[in-house]
Amino acid sequence: MSESLLRDADSACDAVIDLRRALHREPELGLDLPKTQARLLAALEPLDLPTTLGRASSSVVVRLDGDQPGPLTLLRADMDALPVTERTGLPYTSEVPGAMHACGHDAHTAMLMGAAHVLHARRAELCGTALLVFQPGEEGYGGCRKMIGEGLLDPLPDRAFALHQSPTLASGHVATRPGPLLAAGDVFQVTVTGRGGHASRPHEADDVLGAAAALVPALHARAARAADPARPWQVYVSTVNAGTAPGVIADRAVLTGGTRTLEESARARAVTLVGEVATGIAEAHGCAAEVTWTSIAPATVNDPDQTTLALDTATALLGADRVHILERPAFASEDFGHVLARVPGTLLQLGTRPPGALDPAPNHSPLMCLDEGALVTGVALYAALALAPAE
């Protein structure tokens, strides 16, 4: 079946590449992706499958029933772009200033569309139902949570899979690991306040800016000391803003940053640590601090059994030399973790490193390019995961 599945995927790839390039030229950010949704629906229209559109976003969910009973398998692709100005020089480079598919979500969407066509032609082999989920708002907009709130997991799927392209992994290769794969991502805002004043009379004001400046190394040092080397986590500061004019002592400073953690215990400890350090540093400077938090995504934790199934499926499709088990998790975040917290499944990396690239630009870079030759692998793997027998 593997060779014929790859042939079917290859036959679909002209349409896959056409859709991917169209999405790449006109990237859209966040939850409202009307052009992306319209192009996707046009590509799926010949299949005439039951389709549900999101109420709070441009999500698309397609149901494909097989001819035989079996599991409900969720396959997910994200669709949104990033606020990045593209500098690749590709013929189909972004035509939207300040927006780019710098994380490959255009490829994810196109590959799952291609898999829909492959699976539709193989309905007689499909046991159960494939639920094809096209999700907006992955890049910090809570898209997955919104879809779950609209009933995505009702009824609860039996298993769930997603692919994410990696421009640093060899093209056409696949990698994942059981257990934690990616970190939980949370962002914080620390607001330091105190008495402002005239620069000529500093004794009548509080050193809000000094407190903010001291807080950055203090947070980094305290987090480094508090983290268990065997169970690491990260705290970082990204921005510091204070002051309005050279002669004015600021009465307010705002810092933003975040944490990356693999376990809930570390996540709770990081929240406590940021609050303690912010309060202590602010008070030492005669100021006050308020900390607010926003959760971006939970840790992405792969189910061991479904990961074994996915790796075995990929090996049968591609050969053992193109399938890899990762030694350790990474500290990027991915909101597919919301699904995996409720449904056994796995997220796999699909290698898309451009041929000859010795130092390829990573995801989120304005120079990120991917090898479109790997898309056939993604189409075939999405389809193979849906066709894989339940264990």
Can you summarize this structure?
This protein has 391 residues and is an alpha/beta fold.
What would you note in describing this structure?
The protein has an eight-stranded mixed β-sheet with strand order 1-2-4-3-5-16-6-15, with helices on both faces. Strands 10-12-8-13 form a four-stranded antiparallel β-sheet, covered by helices on one side. Strands 7-14 form a two-stranded antiparallel sheet. The mean pLDDT is 96. The chain contains nine helices and 16 strands. It is elongated, with a radius of gyration of 23 Å. The chain has two domains: 269 residues, Aminopeptidase (3-Layer(aba) Sandwich), CATH 3.40.630.10; 114 residues, Alpha-Beta Plaits (2-Layer Sandwich).
Layout of secondary structure:
Elements lengths: L1 H24 L8 H11 L6 E3 L6 E6 L2 E11 L26 H17 L5 E9 L7 H7 L9 E8 L7 E3 L2 E4 L1 E10 L3 E2 L9 H19 L7 E9 L5 E2 L2 E10 L2 H21 L3 E10 L2 E3 L1 H15 L4 E3 L11 H4 L4 E7 L23 H13 L4
Parallel strand pairs: 3-4, 3-5, 5-16, 6-15
Antiparallel strand pairs: 1-2, 2-4, 6-16, 7-14, 8-12, 8-13, 9-11, 10-12
Helix pairs in contact: 1-2, 1-3, 1-9, 3-9, 5-6, 7-9
Cofactor: Mn(2+)
Keywords: Manganese, Metal-binding
Protein name: Amidohydrolase
